[in-house]
Design brief:
Layout lengths: L2 H14 L1 H4 L12 H8 L3 H8 L2 H8 L9 H5 L13 H4 L4 H14 L5 E4 L6 H8 L5 E5 L2 H13 L4 E5 L15 E9 H13 L4 E7 L14 H4 L7 H6 L9 H25 L19 H11 L10 H23 L2 H18 L3 E6 L10 E6 L3
Parallel strand pairs: 1-2, 1-4, 2-3, 4-5
Antiparallel strand pairs: 5-7, 6-7
Bound molecules: S-adenosylmethionine.
The site of S-adenosylmethionine has 16 residues, from helix 9 and strand 4.
């Protein structure tokens, strides 16, 4: 299957199933799909948590229930870059946390031997660039917004005798186009939303020989309505919004149990307060209350409601039945979690759709493009690598 065929199949499937994922879980007091009520009611809270942490199990559970889900394993599986992780001296990994370093090792290995000059986009401290410079890239130029990260990166590179220099720039405001050249390998690891889109556009304009990127946070620095990059995706009937793009990022990272417990209380209390607010004001839509220090959730539901009511300028009647609304919150949480579970069936599909839009855009610009995973999901769920090369 070509990338375009994969995109077309995924696009039709996502369009046909959009009622299951293009929604906001907090909007519902009851499950919005009658055909799923019985199977979802049979799941205990721990069944829901277990399914949510295992994408293949999610596909298996929902395949007989939602038409098209049985195709998702095939349409969302990307081949793995077949590379060997190489070892580095300890001083290269200094200051890089365990999983991040393994992620970088895999990313660097998947890029192949660096023969061109490197342009590193949104570099942070330039860990990636330093590893490429260590692997004998002729020169690494790292661009980063935060001056102190540029300074730290520059110091490390100097101490380690690596051919690398930094430029501080806001890539969304400053004109950095002159930094892209033809004989170059432009790399971007986990640059968010518009940051990696602008990277791709500028590299294509400069006809940069090689472009490699692992996208993340597709919604950041972009308009709410998604603007497709490739001609093929521009013809899609799917109208994605930030809410949908965020769904692509919702792979579960198992939280420590204490954090999960506080989170459970938080969701129940927020939904309980929301039910109370609706009753008092006669409103029917969910309105979020700002985030707050988690310590609030070890106090009482009544104290949380007093705080939230002040934020929303609502007066709570003296005789309000807190236990009733807390129970409502607990019941709504069950609904919310089950709506989220159904939406999560499609999270990787949306990410692959977005990645293929980027890959097809690069193809359209004349590049030969591959899309692979470069590391295990446990190291980072944002593990997709798009590699593009201009034919000689
Ligand atoms: C998620 S980090 C990725 C860092 C590095 N590439 C890595 O994978 O370790 C994103 C980086 O983008 C930088 N950044 C954010 N907005 C930027 C902008 N407008 N211009 C340049 N860099 C930006 C941040 O300061 C941050 O260092």
């Amino acid at each position: 299957m070509t990338l375009a065929e994969q995109f077309t199949a995924l696009d039709s499937l996502l369009y046909a199933t959009r009622q299951y994922w293009q929604c906001t879980a907090f909007d519902y007091d009851e499950l919005p799909w009658s055909s799923l009520s019985a199977p979802l009611a049979q799941l205990s809270d721990s069944d829901v948590a277990k399914l949510d942490s295992d994408q293949d199990a999610l596909y298996r559970f929902f395949s007989p229930l939602i038409e098209g889900v049985e195709q998702l394993p095939k349409l969302t599986t990307l081949s793995t870059a077949q590379v060997e992780r190489t070892d580095y001296p300890f001083w290269i990994s200094n200051g890089i946390k365990g999983r991040k370093f393994e992620q970088l090792q895999d990313f660097v290995a998947a890029l192949g031997v660096p023969t061109e000059q490197v342009l590193e986009w949104c570099a942070g401290k330039g860990h990636l660039g330093r590893m490429l410079a260590f692997n004998k890239a002729p020169n690494v130029h790292s661009i980063e917004l935060q001056q102190h990260l540029c300074d730290q990166g520059q110091r490390s590179a100097q101490q380690q005798g690596l051919a690398m220099h930094f430029t501080q720039a806001d890539v969304l405001k400053d004109d950095v186009s002159a930094h892209f050249t033809q004989q170059q390998h432009a790399v971007a690891l986990h640059a968010c939303g518009a940051l990696h889109q602008s990277f791709m556009q500028q590299a294509c304009s400069a006809k940069t020989q090689q472009i490699s990127l692992s996208p993340c946070c597709y919604h950041l620095f972009t308009d709410d309505a998604y603007k497709a990059m490739s001609e093929r995706a521009k013809q899609s009937e799917l109208m994605l919004r930030h809410r949908d793009l965020k769904l692509a990022l919702q792979e579960t990272v198992t939280a420590p149990s204490r954090v999960a417990k506080v989170r459970k209380t938080e969701v129940e209390w927020r939904l309980g307060f929301d039910a109370m607010r609706k009753e008092i004001t006669g409103s029917t839509t969910y309105i979020s209350v700002p985030s707050v220090n988690k310590a609030v959730f070890s106090d009482s539901f009544k104290a949380f409601c007093a705080w939230a009511a002040e934020k929303k300028a609502i007066e709570i009647p003296q005789d309000i039945d807190y236990d009733y609304f807390l129970l409502k919150g607990q019941m709504r949480k069950k609904v919310t979690e089950r709506v989220e579970l159904v939406r999560h069936v499609f999270r990787r599909a949306i990410e692959v759709w977005l990645v293929l839009d980027r890959a097809l855009y690069l193809q359209q610009q004349g590049y030969q493009v591959t899309v692979n995973t470069f590391c295990e999901k446990q190291l980072t769920p944002r593990n997709i690598l798009i590699k593009a090369r201009l034919p000689n």
